[in-house]
## 1
Amino acid sequence: MKAISTSNAPAAIGPYSQAIEANGTVFVSGQLPIDPSTGEFAEGGVQAQARQSLTNMRNILAEAGLSMQNVCKVTVLLADIKDFAAVNEVYAEFFAAPYPARSAFAVAALPKGAAVEIEAIAAR
């Protein structure tokens, strides 16, 4: 296994890696909507938070030499399922057909009170 780390995404807030590569597969940890330059959540509501989470993911993948086109599976965690459509609009800015497989869940709460957290699995 190889850890993937970049300063262009927020540092892990616990005992985990931004991403791990194993046998050509990159597992990107859940990305909170933290702007790595400020350490704060992106301002502007759930769409701004989703955009920051996906930007963080894109930056981690770039560090691994990959792009969003390498993503095979995405999991979207929402603090409120009513935000599903709004997050979908932003999601469409980052992915093109063929779209990765995806799951989306509403959860009781996310770390630091985030509205969204997004993780992914990518392949070379």
## 2
Amino acid sequence: MLLATLIALSLPQVVATHRDEACPPTPIALPRGMEGWSRPTAVAAAATAAKPVLLTARSAVRATLLPITGVTYAVPPAKPGAATSHGGLFAFDVARAGRYRVALGSPAWIDVLRGTMPVASVTHGHGPSCSTIRKMVDFDLKPGRHLLQIAGSEPAAVTLMVLPVD
């Protein structure tokens, strides 16, 4: 009886591990509009808002980030991360008002600013199961240029993409 109880208690852990191992060796197909995620272009993040790296919607980049101590943010990040973390600055243009998504391949803090005003996120979550997208955050944005601040990334490089939510 004790052995049966111990086996039963350990089953949920085995099932959870099995789900993790059930992912295919190659990443799954991503939702429509995110096809560019698998073909990122290499860029180096900017250290100041004066010359941010300009992103193109639906085009992923593999961004080399800077030590957080070397980044001058337009507005202090809400969660800057550890002193040993990484970050950088990017910009993107919004042609028409709507919901836009920022996707990241690793954990980090995301701030989107219109000028020097932070834009509140409307939803956030993880990427699709078995994909290489770790985090997705949605923002309702007006037309114009927006600043994307990345902070608190432990890895020195991150894949990221901005896209309209259809």
## 3
Amino acid sequence: MTRASAPPALRIDGLTVAYESDPVLWDIDLELPAGCIMGVVGPNGAGKSTLLLSTLGLLPPLAGRVEVFGQPLERVRHRVAYVPQRRSVDWDFPATVMDVVLMGTYGRLGWFRRPGKTQRAEAMAALELVEMVEQADSQISELSGGQQQRIFLARAFVQHADLLMMDEPFAGVDAKTERAIVRLLHGLRDEGKTLLVVHHDLATVPEYFDQVALLNRKIVACGPVGRTFTDAHVERTYGGSVRVPVPRA
């Protein structure tokens, strides 16, 4: 099957989510082609994190359907990895960096097998990829925000997932770490992986992403950055006069 004829990595049809009686997402239609990076942008309270959580089955929808690589999520959950917002994690939990990364292998091992030499080697390779090998035995609470984000990326890498969903992976990291993460994400894309990334910095959208979804409870526009990330769509999304940033030279 060629990429042109392959099903999209993610297809969302008519997704509606509410907290009690308050709709957070309304009738969301979204299609993410395989082998690209899509950024999800919108104002605070637009439902960006809710979109990821409901797509992953962590929040029950009122309506709608989600397919991953043409199948229900339950059948291909092993092909999906999730990187949550760093601020949503209890970093005081007594675990080492290696412990956290090894958690990414549990889905393949099952409940009754413990990680062995093979899994530890995979974890070390992932830590090398994110330049965190020297911190393997450190407690996660001892790390900086940027280091903690790298550890969560390493955990996602060892899952061997084909679709990675990331909730603001650049939040709270320094410029050097952000550039390193972008290189990693582009490298994964070039290997054929697909990434859905919640993002807040409009200035970097043209540089970071192939596709963009502009969201404010509803999808305002979704598609390739070049034709979708326009002044008109951004203004409709944010409810005011917002100019699309000029791409960096």
## 4
Amino acid sequence: MKDGESMKGYIHSTESCGTVDGPGIRFVVFFQGCPMRCAYCHNPDTWKPNCGEMMSTDEIIAMYNSKKEFYKNGGITCTGGEPMMQIDFLTELFEKCHQNNIHTCLDTSGIMFRENEDYLKKVNRLLAVTDLVMLDIKHINPQEHQKLTKQPNEMILKFAKYVDSKGIDIWIRHVVVPTITQNDHYLFQLGEFIATLQHIRALDVLPYHTMGIVKYEELGYEYPLKGIEPLSKEDAIKARNVILSGMKAALNRHD
């Protein structure tokens, strides 16, 4: 890349009116590439890395600025896929957002986090221009997480702690799947973990849905959760209450 050139990254798509991707109305950038293989993923077309549309950070900022009055209470959210697979591009984008007074939200699984010195320098540079982290915790139990996502959860939980140590707002997301994460024991444990974080801004407990089945069929993939019914909103509310009870119990122990 020549001096003064805008860095380019692999982008799956963009959405100009995101209402569930952070505070306010947001411009949402879906990054291409993800190492997770979540059984309930509804975007399997974002898994493959190094493909999709090549876009520069300047192009994305220009797309945002063309409708910036629309986003006056929102900002830009980077999601995926997994944005931290392209951490250098992501960081340059967020730095330009801050130069333009644009609120930045990172929607991540945290799976890319590592504790070596060189990587932490990159993470620190990224977090310095990140206003909000939306962290998807797929499963609190290490063995069950591995079964559900084909990846361990150790670094994800460490990433949560690291972000919290930087004083950055965290918005937890958790999908409740019948027979998998719809389990009071695990939900309570998740609440206990969340209670260790000081900068929780919100908790989204999302009911499992089957809208991704069509994409799996189009891609020729077998859908992993065939036969599991969607979770009702009522059951999602019950699950959220169990998580909150775990948080409360943990906080009471430390009073």
